[in-house]
Amino acid sequence: MTFTFDVQRKTRGFLKQYLETLSLKELNTIPEGYNNSILWNIGHIIVTQQLLVYKLSGLPMLVNESQISKYMKGTKPEADATQEEVNNLNKLLFTTVEQTKNDYQNGIFIDFNEYVLSTTGNTLTKVEEAINFNLFHEGIHLGYIMALKKALK
After folding, report:
1. What is the C-alpha separation between 153 and 150, in angstroms, rounded?
2. Closest by Cα among 48, 61, 152 to 109
3. Do 95 and 49 touch, CB atoms closer than 8 A?
4. What's the burial of 148, exposed, middle or buried (CB within 10 Å: 0-12/13-18/19+)?
5. d(Cα 44, Cα 75) in Å, to the nearest integer?
6. CB of 18 closer than 8 Å to CB of 45
7. Sign of CA dihedral 131, 127, 87, 83
8. Taken in order 92, 95, 98, 104, is the CA torsion positive or negative?
9. From CA 115, how far away is CA 52, in angstroms rounded?
10. Could you tell me if 58 and 113 are in contact, meaning their C-beta atoms sit under 8 angstroms apart?
């Protein structure tokens, strides 16, 4: 799992660059033909990782209910995010990955509730599958973020 966590940290590094180099307006903009913003996609990545890994394991998540309801699958931005929200997501990018790595190494993921993925139809049966699938999910959204950035010009 060392490789998996390393790839996730590197992917999150790309996301951090967007949060730190784009303006608040650019992060919140939903270009014509798109359903959401760069910021929404980053929040969605963080929330989804927590849902797949922690919630399906029956463990407390590192995100709150407000963040879940704002960024979970099937939502879209209802209002522009504030700089405070951007700063919080920036922090969560890495704290969630590091906590997951530590928790995995400490063996806290014991139970897991099977879950059928809507994107691929596969069934997650254990936490390792959820952690590995999450890389695929983050890659999809990183590509979407790249398209959104291009559409901002």
Report:
1. 6
2. 61
3. no
4. buried
5. 9
6. no
7. positive
8. negative
9. 9
10. yes
- Alpha-carbon gap, residue 139 to 125, rounded angstroms: 21
Give the mean pLDDT per block of 10 residues along the chain (153 residues): 95 97 98 96 98 98 96 96 97 97 98 96 97 97 97 88
Q: What are 40's two structure tokens?
A: 């929404």
Beta bridge partners of 90: none
Cβ(112)–Cβ(57) under 8 Å? yes
User: Which residue matches tokens 């760069």?
Assistant: 38
CA distance linking residue 20 with residue 42, whole number of Å: 12
Domains of the chain: 2-151 (1.20.120.450)
Structure-token pair, residue 57:
């394991």
What is residue 153's predicted lDDT score, i.e. its pLDDT? 74
Measuring CA to CA, which residue among 100, 99, 95, 91 is closest to residue 130?
A: 100
Query: How does 48-85 read in b/e, with b if 16+ C-beta sit within 10 Å?
Result: bbbbbbbbbbebebbbeeebbebbeeebebeeebeeeb
Return the C-alpha torsion angle 134, 140, 142, 143, nearest 10.
Answer: 160
